[in-house]
Amino acid sequence: MRQLTVDEGSAGQRLDNFLIRELKGAPKTLVYRIIRSGEVRINKGRCSADSRLEVGDVVRVPPIRLAEKSDDQAAAVPAREFPIVFEDEHLIVVDKPAGVAVHGGSGVSFGVIEQLRRARPQAKFLELVHRLDKETSGLLMIAKKRSALTHLQDQLRDRETGKTYAALVSGAWAKGKKVVDVPLLKFVGSDGERWVRAVPDPKDPQAEHAKRSISLVKVVEAYSGDSGAKGGKAGDPAGFSLLDVTIKTGRTHQIRVHLAHEGHAIVGDPKYGDFEANRLIARGALRFDRMFLHARLLRVVHPATGETLTLEAPLPPECEKLLAALRRPAP
After folding, report:
1. Parallel, antiparallel, or unpaired for β 58-61 and 91-96?
2. pLDDT, tens digit (0-9, with 9 covering 90-100), for 7-63
3. Residue 49: phi, psi to the nearest 5?
4. For residue 129, is pLDDT > 70?
5. Helices (H), 23-145
6. What confidence tens digit (pLDDT) does each residue in 222-239 have?
7. Which residue from 93, 166, 198, 305 lies 20 to 30 Å from 269 (Cα-Cα)?
8. Mean pLDDT over residues 255-270, rounded?
């Protein structure tokens, strides 16, 4: 029989989530079964899956034999630190590279959070505050205390944070188009993949299930179609536009779908972009083979001090290289 004492990092957490974290490798069905059967106790009393834990609570857990493969799986996760933009005892903000998932699942064995936990075995609490698509680079928040996690997620939910992304899109974005306010609907396609589509028509049969989504758009720089860069739509006179996109809602694939819906897909977007244009720019002289979407600016209220943090992550070198090529006149 194990007796687990709840520390500050787990205070406020639901019992089921606490046990899933503590009993690594245990199936969720087993966790809920031992709770329902009364084998798990909090301070010697019966409890339910949604019981909230407090500092100093003692959780009694019956002996459980976990599959040995869980240790093998943990060992297979390589320890990795990521470029730190900000860190204190409450919060870490890293600059996530493109091509790295934020967490394991959906065919991905591990992501940023699993690798960071592996690199910091002494850390009692590390949890993702929000998500970034695997293809997106830039600022990612990770909480080091549960109190910080709930505070920051409340800010995100109440739209009190500022998250701005740099996006390079095909074509000339109209400078007067500053707001995209189009509902989005998430669904699973015939390929089993998760997709999102814009639902601009309130008469659409699925309109009632779509969620209002708002993106603010500003043109940072425009590139003519006669630049020296080869790629994208060859010979496209419309060129490209570098945008700053600030999201007021945090829907899945929001920026990608909003910009594509407006007729300006993100360069390199493998899901909502132009396949042929992506192929040309990836195989051309520039060899740009990622999606040009980067979480570059974050404004958030510190969960403990109340100070407003303004954090920035510069564009990755491969993105800067592409922009430099677009600025060069054609020979």
Report:
1. unpaired
2. 877 778 889 888 987 887 788 888 999 999 999 999 999 999 989 998 899 999 998
3. -60, -30
4. yes
5. 28-36, 69-76, 112-119
6. 998 665 555 444 445 579
7. 93
8. 97
Q: How far apart are CA 72 and CA 36, in angstroms?
A: 30
| pTM of the shown model | 0.80
268, 274, 275, 278 alpha-carbon torsion, rounded to 10°: -30
The helix or strand, by DSSP H or E, that contains position 276, with its residue range, turns out to be helix 275-283
pLDDT of residue 6: 87
Q: How far apart are CA 232 and CA 25, in angstroms?
A: 45
Which of 256, 300, 253, 20 is closest to 142 using CA atoms?
Answer: 300
DSSP, collapsed to helix, strand or coil, labels residue 3 as strand
In the chain, helix, strand, coil percent, each to 5? Answer: 25, 30, 50
Cα–Cα distance for residue pair 286/309, rounded to 1 Å = 36
The single-letter code of the amino acid at 133 is D
Q: Cα(240)–Cα(281) distance, rounded to whole angstroms?
A: 12
How many C-beta atoms surround the C-beta of residue 16 within 10 A? Answer: 17
Tokens at 87, concatenated: 């860190």
11 C-beta neighbours (distance < 10 Å), count: 18
Tokens of 167: 């996006």
- Beta sheet of 2-5, edge-to-edge order: 2-5, 58-61, 41-42
φ, ψ for residue 175, nearest 5 deg: -60, -25
Nearest to 59 by CA among 24, 114, 11, 93: 11
User: Taking each helix axis from N to C terminus, what angle separates 28-36 and 15-22, rounded to the nearest 10 degrees?
Assistant: 130
Rounded to an integer, what distance in angstroms lies between the CA atom of residue 267 and that of residue 172?
13
The catalytic position among 7, 16, 57, 133 is 133
Q: Is the Cα dihedral 313, 317, 323, 328 positive or negative? A: positive
- ∠ CA 86-290-170, nearest 5°, is 110
The DSSP output letter for 52 is B
Question: Looking at residue 8, what DSSP letter applies?
Answer: G
- Cβ–Cβ under 8 Å, residues 85 and 95: yes
In contact, 322 and 285? CB cutoff 8 Å? no
Q: 21 Cβ partners below 8 Å, 6+ apart?
A: 10
